[in-house]
Write a structure and sequence with these properties.
This protein has 401 residues and is mainly alpha-helical. It contains 15 helices and 5 strands. The protein has a 3-stranded antiparallel sheet, with helices on one face. The protein is elongated.
Length: 401
């Protein structure tokens, strides 16, 4: 899928077919309308599903992100073996394969390989016969899986041959509704090409507004100190054991812990805020592809295992504020413990702050020691100090009251 920065109508091009001995390739560019609330990745996927239903109508589909590809030609056969197994097929919707990434550095400081997500998942299922979702099956990652076409709409096909009720669920396209009851392609058998009527249908099916007002478009988580210490250390130990059992190292464990903390105060925070704003109508849904460019300086820092902090202020500032808050909390807490011996009240705070500071060493280094282009800009450090001091002041006033 190629997406432009402006609005454009749907575009479908069929490459191959006829006398050309090659697999049929269909380019689909879904209608792009930023003013429409339907500009979302999952709606895009459904538009491709609709278009493919009147071109090939294959009962099984391989779903990949726009920057992913399948590097194992036997994966289709492996997936179909599960889909055709009479014992599990009736309740099987998809077969998930792990995502693997190229050009990952030895340190993998950003946890770019998603090693924790997939390696531990596969180990848990294959070795321990357990599953992370508690339902005896893997989670759906959104890419790299083979899924049954009927899994997208089977629950809605409960109306028999009532064409009006089917249109309430699946829209106005007769060709699309016809494909729901077919297990083979609806293309012309002689030339493998779309007729003029079918081409018009694909334009309709790839529009942003097709599924508006349809059911398919609207329906598709002292003793107190001892307890804390036990839970905290047990959690860290469990993660370390999983890392070691799946081929990782102690440094891998540190990197994964560190990136979890970083993501908690950046992408998880902003993702939650974005979801809330969309829910209350303060923000419309959007979908933008990320920049995949890599210059020589960024590549050099990455291979050296150094974080590159050249990004927007909203992404860096929360990290620096977190470090400053925990540094102040750790120092003040340590002074209080030494002065008063009040370990019962201060143990949890001191240990948590120390743990966060240890995991934040690359950020501290970027704030104080590094002078390269990827260091934390001084103005962000200054701004973060002001914000952190304000938060500490407000917090102390509230606690005093």
């Amino acid at each position: 899928m190629i997406m432009s920065s402006g609005d454009h109508p749907p575009n479908i091009e069929v490459i191959g077919g006829g006398q050309v001995e090659m697999p049929l390739l269909v380019y689909v560019s879904r209608e792009n309308t930023f003013s429409s609330p339907s500009f979302q990745g999952w709606r895009s996927e459904r538009s491709y599903l609709r278009v493919s239903s009147i071109i090939s109508n294959s009962p099984y589909l391989l779903i990949l992100d726009c920057d992913m590809y399948c590097n194992d030609p036997t994966s289709a056969r492996k997936a179909i073996c599960f889909h055709l197994d009479p014992k599990i097929s009736p309740t099987l919707a998809f077969v998930q394969f792990p995502q693997r990434f190229q050009n990952i550095s030895k340190c993998d400081i950003y946890d770019s390989g998603l090693r924790c997500t997939f390696s531990i998942l596969i180990y848990t299922i294959q070795i321990r016969r357990e599953s992370l979702d508690g339902l005896q099956g893997p989670v759906l990652s959104g890419t790299c899986f083979y899924i049954k076409r009927v899994a997208f709409h089977e629950s809605f096909i409960q109306n028999g041959n009532d064409i009006l009720k089917l249109k309430e669920s699946f829209g106005s396209s007769n060709e699309f509704i016809k494909s729901l009851r077919q297990n083979e392609s609806s293309m012309n058998r002689d030339g493998n090409c779309l007729s003029a009527m079918q081409l018009r249908e694909t334009q309709l099916l790839a529009s942003c507004s097709y599924e508006n007002q349809t059911k398919w478009g609207t329906e598709v988580s002292d003793s107190f100190c001892m307890i804390f210490a036990f839970i905290f250390l047990s959690s860290l130990s469990k993660h370390l054991l999983e890392v070691l059992l799946t081929g990782g190292s102690f440094q891998t464990w540190i990197n994964e812990q560190r990136i979890w903390i970083i993501m908690s105060v950046t992408c998880y925070l902003y993702g939650s805020m974005d979801a809330i704003m969309k829910k209350i109508g303060m923000r419309e849904a959007s979908f933008l592809t990320t920049n995949k460019d890599m210059d020589d300086e960024k590549e050099k820092l990455y291979q050296m295992g150094k974080f590159d902090f050249r990004t927007s202020t909203p992404m860096i500032a929360p990290l620096v504020i977190l470090v400053i808050l925990n540094l102040a909390s750790f120092m003040l807490g340590l002074v209080r413990v030494i002065a008063t011996g009040d370990w019962d009240k201060m143990f949890v705070q001191v240990v948590l702050s120390f743990y966060i500071l240890i995991m934040s060493l690359p950020i501290i280094e970027g704030m104080t020691m590094r002078k390269d282009e990827g260091c934390v800009p001084s103005y962000i450090t200054g701004l973060s100090i002001v914000v952190a001091m304000a938060l500490l002041t407000v917090g102390s006033i509230v606690l005093m009251d």
